[in-house]
Design a protein that fits this description.
Helix content: 25-40%
Strand content: 25-35%
Number of helices: 4
Strand order of the largest sheet: 7-6-5-9-8
Radius of gyration: 24 Å
Shape: elongated
Structural class: alpha+beta
Distance between the termini: 50 Å
Largest sheet: 5 strands, antiparallel
């Protein structure tokens, strides 16, 4: 929430908004001002809203709730990966992924309920997963939060067993 005219001097709310926007273009900027003359200039930072004083408190409350809901939705989406199917898109929470295996040109995402097909390389998938995933083999990415046990096999390799998953 920024006022366009912050105080007498060189810096304005628009200057501050440009700096914020250049560092975080996904932020929600709302100008609150008594001046309509800056409305067109404000579009350079893609404000979420432009409120002219006097402020309608119920409108401001609705706006803040709306922004909070959108920010929560963005957070939820950032914790998921998108799988494109035949005319459909699925959002799968990273927390639901047990492991991902690559077999041929298909990656299979294993969750407790479903095994999803994805036509991407493990390198491409790995970029979107974060620190809780580990590349245990050229064909496997495992969710470290789902690991129950790791033990040595007879063949000098390791076997990983997962919580609530038999494979």
């Amino acid at each position: 929430l920024l006022d366009i005219e912050l105080c007498p001097g060189d810096i304005s709310g628009l200057t501050v908004a440009k700096s914020i926007f250049s560092n975080n273009p996904d932020c929600f900027i709302v100008f609150i001002t008594g001046h309509t003359k800056y409305a067109l200039q404000s579009f350079i930072v893609h404000p979420y809203d432009y409120i002219v004083k006097p402020i309608n408190k119920s409108r401001l409350k609705r706006l803040i709730k709306e922004i909070a809901d959108r920010a929560q939705h963005k957070t939820n989406l950032s914790n998921s990966i998108i799988i494109k199917g035949k005319g459909e898109h699925y959002h799968i929470s990273k927390d639901d992924i047990i492991f991902i295996e690559k077999y041929g040109n298909v990656a299979y995402i294993h969750t407790t309920d479903v095994k999803h097909k994805l036509y991407l390389s493990l390198d491409e998938i790995e970029k979107n997963l974060g620190d809780s995933f580990f590349r245990s083999h050229k064909s496997y990415l495992i969710n470290l939060n789902k690991v129950k046990k790791v033990y040595k096999d007879k063949n000098r390799s390791y076997v990983v067993s997962f919580e609530n998953y038999e494979q």
